[in-house]
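Researcher: We're teaching a course module on how sequence relates to structure. For the next exercise, students receive a sequence and then see the predicted structure as C-alpha coordinates, so they can try to spot secondary structure elements on their own. Here is the exercise chain.
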Amino acid sequence: MDCAQIRDAFMTGVVLPNESVRAHLSECSQCRELFEHDAELGRKLAAQAANDFPFPDALFEEIATDVARETGLRAWLRSRPTRLRVPSVVLLVLLAVVTGGVLRERPDWASYPLARVVLLLGGYFVLCAAAVRQELSLSARRARALPGLLAALVVPFLFAFAPATEASRHAGPGGALGCFGYGALLTLPVALLLWLFDRDDRPSLRTVGLSAAALGLAANLILELHCPNGNAVHLLLGHASIGVAWWLVWFLTRSFSVGQGARRSRAARA
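Model: And here is the predicted structure for the students to work with:
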Protein backbone atom coordinates (compact mmCIF):
# COMPACT_ATOMS: atom_id res chain seq x y z
CA MET A 1 0.00 0.00 0.00
CA ASP A 2 1.39 3.42 -0.96
CA CYS A 3 0.24 7.05 -1.21
CA ALA A 4 -0.78 6.74 -4.87
CA GLN A 5 -3.10 3.82 -4.10
CA ILE A 6 -4.74 5.75 -1.25
CA ARG A 7 -5.24 8.77 -3.50
CA ASP A 8 -6.60 6.69 -6.37
CA ALA A 9 -9.01 4.89 -4.04
CA PHE A 10 -10.57 8.18 -2.97
CA MET A 11 -10.72 9.39 -6.55
CA THR A 12 -12.33 6.21 -7.93
CA GLY A 13 -14.34 5.09 -4.90
CA VAL A 14 -12.56 1.75 -4.63
CA VAL A 15 -12.67 0.24 -1.11
CA LEU A 16 -9.21 -0.80 0.08
CA PRO A 17 -8.45 -3.52 2.68
CA ASN A 18 -8.70 -1.98 6.17
CA GLU A 19 -5.55 -3.67 7.47
CA SER A 20 -3.42 -2.38 4.59
CA VAL A 21 -4.84 1.12 4.99
CA ARG A 22 -4.17 1.18 8.75
CA ALA A 23 -0.60 -0.04 8.24
CA HIS A 24 0.06 2.74 5.71
CA LEU A 25 -1.58 5.47 7.82
CA SER A 26 0.57 4.55 10.81
CA GLU A 27 3.62 5.66 8.80
CA CYS A 28 2.29 8.47 6.59
CA SER A 29 1.05 11.70 8.16
CA GLN A 30 -0.07 13.16 4.79
CA CYS A 31 -2.47 10.30 4.07
CA ARG A 32 -3.73 10.38 7.67
CA GLU A 33 -5.03 13.88 6.95
CA LEU A 34 -7.29 12.43 4.24
CA PHE A 35 -9.04 10.30 6.86
CA GLU A 36 -9.31 12.93 9.64
CA HIS A 37 -12.73 14.27 10.65
CA ASP A 38 -14.60 11.32 9.13
CA ALA A 39 -12.44 11.40 5.97
CA GLU A 40 -13.64 14.92 5.15
CA LEU A 41 -10.71 15.80 2.92
CA GLY A 42 -10.71 12.42 1.18
CA ARG A 43 -14.44 12.62 0.47
CA LYS A 44 -14.04 16.10 -0.98
CA LEU A 45 -11.43 14.77 -3.37
CA ALA A 46 -13.76 11.92 -4.30
CA ALA A 47 -16.63 14.36 -4.90
CA GLN A 48 -14.45 16.45 -7.16
CA ALA A 49 -13.47 13.34 -9.12
CA ALA A 50 -17.13 12.32 -9.48
CA ASN A 51 -17.92 15.74 -10.93
CA ASP A 52 -15.06 15.36 -13.42
CA PHE A 53 -13.12 18.30 -11.98
CA PRO A 54 -9.64 17.97 -13.48
CA PHE A 55 -6.65 18.06 -11.15
CA PRO A 56 -3.58 19.79 -12.54
CA ASP A 57 -0.42 17.74 -12.75
CA ALA A 58 1.30 20.37 -10.61
CA LEU A 59 -0.93 19.45 -7.67
CA PHE A 60 0.17 15.83 -7.72
CA GLU A 61 3.78 16.86 -8.23
CA GLU A 62 3.54 19.03 -5.12
CA ILE A 63 1.98 16.16 -3.17
CA ALA A 64 4.76 13.84 -4.33
CA THR A 65 7.35 16.41 -3.24
CA ASP A 66 5.74 16.68 0.21
CA VAL A 67 5.68 12.90 0.56
CA ALA A 68 9.34 12.67 -0.49
CA ARG A 69 10.27 15.11 2.29
CA GLU A 70 8.84 12.74 4.88
CA THR A 71 12.02 10.69 5.18
CA GLY A 72 14.90 10.75 7.62
CA LEU A 73 15.24 11.46 11.34
CA ARG A 74 12.81 14.38 11.55
CA ALA A 75 10.11 12.48 9.66
CA TRP A 76 10.49 9.59 12.12
CA LEU A 77 10.35 11.92 15.15
CA ARG A 78 7.31 13.77 13.80
CA SER A 79 5.47 10.47 13.37
CA ARG A 80 5.82 9.60 17.07
CA PRO A 81 2.55 9.83 19.03
CA THR A 82 1.79 12.97 21.03
CA ARG A 83 1.96 11.02 24.28
CA LEU A 84 5.66 10.42 23.55
CA ARG A 85 6.60 13.77 21.99
CA VAL A 86 5.21 15.96 24.79
CA PRO A 87 6.95 14.14 27.71
CA SER A 88 10.22 14.15 25.75
CA VAL A 89 10.18 17.95 25.46
CA VAL A 90 9.10 18.38 29.11
CA LEU A 91 11.93 16.12 30.28
CA LEU A 92 14.40 18.18 28.26
CA VAL A 93 13.04 21.33 29.95
CA LEU A 94 13.63 19.68 33.34
CA LEU A 95 17.18 18.78 32.29
CA ALA A 96 17.82 22.40 31.28
CA VAL A 97 16.43 23.59 34.64
CA VAL A 98 18.66 21.20 36.57
CA THR A 99 21.70 22.12 34.48
CA GLY A 100 21.24 25.88 34.46
CA GLY A 101 19.33 26.55 37.66
CA VAL A 102 19.82 23.89 40.28
CA LEU A 103 23.48 23.12 39.59
CA ARG A 104 24.30 26.84 39.31
CA GLU A 105 21.86 28.20 41.86
CA ARG A 106 21.60 31.81 42.99
CA PRO A 107 23.79 32.82 45.96
CA ASP A 108 20.83 33.98 48.06
CA TRP A 109 18.98 30.69 47.73
CA ALA A 110 19.02 30.08 51.50
CA SER A 111 16.76 33.10 52.03
CA TYR A 112 14.45 32.35 49.09
CA PRO A 113 10.84 32.20 50.39
CA LEU A 114 9.39 28.68 50.34
CA ALA A 115 5.94 29.87 49.27
CA ARG A 116 7.47 31.57 46.23
CA VAL A 117 9.29 28.37 45.32
CA VAL A 118 6.05 26.41 45.29
CA LEU A 119 3.85 28.99 43.56
CA LEU A 120 6.22 30.66 41.13
CA LEU A 121 8.41 27.78 40.02
CA GLY A 122 5.49 25.35 40.01
CA GLY A 123 3.45 27.84 37.98
CA TYR A 124 6.24 28.34 35.47
CA PHE A 125 6.62 24.61 34.96
CA VAL A 126 2.90 23.81 34.67
CA LEU A 127 2.33 26.63 32.16
CA CYS A 128 5.41 25.63 30.18
CA ALA A 129 4.24 21.99 29.99
CA ALA A 130 0.75 23.14 28.95
CA ALA A 131 2.19 25.31 26.17
CA VAL A 132 4.29 22.40 24.89
CA ARG A 133 1.27 20.11 24.85
CA GLN A 134 -0.86 22.63 23.00
CA GLU A 135 1.93 23.43 20.53
CA LEU A 136 2.36 19.77 19.60
CA SER A 137 -1.38 19.06 19.29
CA LEU A 138 -3.32 19.55 16.08
CA SER A 139 -6.09 21.53 17.81
CA ALA A 140 -3.65 24.36 18.66
CA ARG A 141 -3.40 25.37 14.99
CA ARG A 142 -7.06 26.33 14.73
CA ALA A 143 -6.91 29.26 17.18
CA ARG A 144 -5.35 32.68 17.10
CA ALA A 145 -1.81 33.58 18.10
CA LEU A 146 -2.69 36.13 20.78
CA PRO A 147 -2.93 33.84 23.87
CA GLY A 148 0.46 32.26 23.25
CA LEU A 149 2.12 35.59 22.59
CA LEU A 150 0.58 37.14 25.70
CA ALA A 151 1.84 34.22 27.77
CA ALA A 152 5.36 34.76 26.47
CA LEU A 153 5.17 38.50 27.24
CA VAL A 154 3.07 38.84 30.38
CA VAL A 155 3.51 35.76 32.56
CA PRO A 156 7.23 36.32 33.31
CA PHE A 157 6.39 39.86 34.42
CA LEU A 158 3.54 38.73 36.65
CA PHE A 159 5.61 36.03 38.34
CA ALA A 160 9.12 37.44 38.43
CA PHE A 161 8.76 41.18 38.82
CA ALA A 162 8.48 40.99 42.61
CA PRO A 163 12.02 40.50 44.00
CA ALA A 164 12.45 37.18 45.77
CA THR A 165 14.84 38.28 48.54
CA GLU A 166 15.85 41.47 50.28
CA ALA A 167 19.24 41.48 48.55
CA SER A 168 17.63 41.27 45.11
CA ARG A 169 15.57 44.40 45.81
CA HIS A 170 18.66 46.59 45.82
CA ALA A 171 20.53 45.12 42.84
CA GLY A 172 21.41 47.25 39.84
CA PRO A 173 20.35 46.62 36.24
CA GLY A 174 23.74 45.27 35.14
CA GLY A 175 24.26 41.83 33.66
CA ALA A 176 21.01 41.74 31.69
CA LEU A 177 22.74 40.68 28.48
CA GLY A 178 24.50 37.84 30.28
CA CYS A 179 21.20 36.53 31.68
CA PHE A 180 19.54 36.83 28.28
CA GLY A 181 22.30 34.81 26.63
CA TYR A 182 22.33 32.26 29.46
CA GLY A 183 18.58 31.64 29.29
CA ALA A 184 18.45 31.59 25.49
CA LEU A 185 21.40 29.20 25.23
CA LEU A 186 19.95 26.70 27.71
CA THR A 187 16.57 26.69 25.95
CA LEU A 188 18.11 26.26 22.50
CA PRO A 189 18.04 22.42 22.71
CA VAL A 190 14.36 22.64 23.71
CA ALA A 191 13.66 24.83 20.67
CA LEU A 192 15.45 22.33 18.42
CA LEU A 193 13.44 19.41 19.81
CA LEU A 194 10.18 21.33 19.40
CA TRP A 195 11.08 21.94 15.76
CA LEU A 196 11.97 18.28 15.20
CA PHE A 197 8.67 17.13 16.73
CA ASP A 198 6.45 19.72 15.00
CA ARG A 199 4.38 18.10 12.24
CA ASP A 200 3.51 21.36 10.52
CA ASP A 201 5.99 22.59 7.89
CA ARG A 202 4.22 25.96 7.84
CA PRO A 203 3.40 26.66 11.52
CA SER A 204 0.45 28.89 12.31
CA LEU A 205 0.85 32.05 14.35
CA ARG A 206 -0.78 30.19 17.23
CA THR A 207 1.91 27.52 17.07
CA VAL A 208 4.60 30.18 16.93
CA GLY A 209 3.16 31.93 19.99
CA LEU A 210 2.92 28.71 22.00
CA SER A 211 6.49 27.71 21.13
CA ALA A 212 7.76 31.11 22.24
CA ALA A 213 5.67 30.93 25.42
CA ALA A 214 7.09 27.52 26.33
CA LEU A 215 10.68 28.62 25.69
CA GLY A 216 10.25 31.96 27.46
CA LEU A 217 8.71 30.30 30.52
CA ALA A 218 11.45 27.65 30.60
CA ALA A 219 14.16 30.35 30.38
CA ASN A 220 12.59 32.41 33.17
CA LEU A 221 12.29 29.30 35.34
CA ILE A 222 16.00 28.66 34.90
CA LEU A 223 16.93 32.29 35.54
CA GLU A 224 14.74 32.52 38.65
CA LEU A 225 16.82 29.71 40.14
CA HIS A 226 20.10 31.11 38.82
CA CYS A 227 19.97 34.92 38.99
CA PRO A 228 19.61 36.90 42.26
CA ASN A 229 18.95 40.25 40.53
CA GLY A 230 15.46 41.68 41.13
CA ASN A 231 16.00 45.02 39.41
CA ALA A 232 13.05 45.89 37.14
CA VAL A 233 15.21 46.95 34.18
CA HIS A 234 17.35 43.82 34.50
CA LEU A 235 14.26 41.59 34.55
CA LEU A 236 12.76 43.39 31.57
CA LEU A 237 15.85 43.19 29.36
CA GLY A 238 17.48 39.98 30.55
CA HIS A 239 14.61 37.70 31.60
CA ALA A 240 11.17 38.57 30.22
CA SER A 241 12.53 39.54 26.80
CA ILE A 242 13.62 35.96 26.03
CA GLY A 243 10.06 34.90 25.22
CA VAL A 244 9.70 37.87 22.87
CA ALA A 245 12.99 37.02 21.17
CA TRP A 246 11.94 33.40 20.62
CA TRP A 247 8.62 34.61 19.21
CA LEU A 248 10.48 36.73 16.67
CA VAL A 249 12.73 33.80 15.72
CA TRP A 250 9.76 31.48 15.20
CA PHE A 251 7.82 34.18 13.34
CA LEU A 252 10.67 34.90 10.93
CA THR A 253 11.22 31.18 10.39
CA ARG A 254 7.50 30.73 9.68
CA SER A 255 7.49 33.66 7.24
CA PHE A 256 10.47 32.21 5.40
CA SER A 257 8.82 28.76 5.25
CA VAL A 258 5.53 30.16 3.94
CA GLY A 259 7.39 32.25 1.35
CA GLN A 260 9.34 29.22 0.15
CA GLY A 261 6.14 27.19 -0.11
CA ALA A 262 4.41 29.92 -2.12
CA ARG A 263 7.36 30.17 -4.51
CA ARG A 264 7.33 26.40 -5.04
CA SER A 265 3.60 26.47 -5.77
CA ARG A 266 3.98 29.27 -8.31
CA ALA A 267 6.87 27.45 -9.97
CA ALA A 268 4.80 24.27 -10.19
CA ARG A 269 1.88 26.10 -11.81
CA ALA A 270 4.13 27.89 -14.33
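Model: If you want an answer key for the exercise: The mean pLDDT is 78. The radius of gyration is 23 Å.
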